[in-house]
Specification:
182 residues; 8 helices; single chain; mainly alpha; 4 strands
Length: 182
Amino acid sequence: MTADKSGAEKDQQMNTVIDGLSAEAVKALVDEGVGFAEIARRCGKSRQYVQQFAARHGIALPKTPRRMVGEEFPWKVPSAMQRTPPYRRMRDHGEFMATGGEGMSAEKKSRLRSWYDMLRKYEVVLEFDPELPPTPGVSPAGGFAYRPREQRDGAKLLIRLNEHTRLTSNGKKIWVFPPKDP
């Protein structure tokens, strides 16, 4: 029975310490603004391992504007399609809507201005469908297409609503043209 108890104690210790880094230390690092990826790098573990460790101990990263907007993102986009320009402009747009551009690079703001200009000039909206094939000049991984704006899209919405879209009440305020371009 003693061997089991010490085994249980070891399990408990493994659950509260990562290579000498305690749950308290992880919480302190998170409170200082250190992300899970950096904590993982420091202790030689994967980001996922650190995330799971933190979750077991009720430790969560603070909600940044980008993270909050990410929760309102209108589509579940496969990782292979997350490197495409349309996806990146949507993420940048969400960040801009959440922060008013505060903390965004001049380059990101410039790309957003160009994107808004293109959407307005050609009167198009962005559509997502994971079955869409790659489109040269738009999305080399597929999934995205620009479609002519229709009456059902309204004047301000940036995206086409379809069966792949989840638009929340907050999302209705985010995925529209900004009141003022960056």
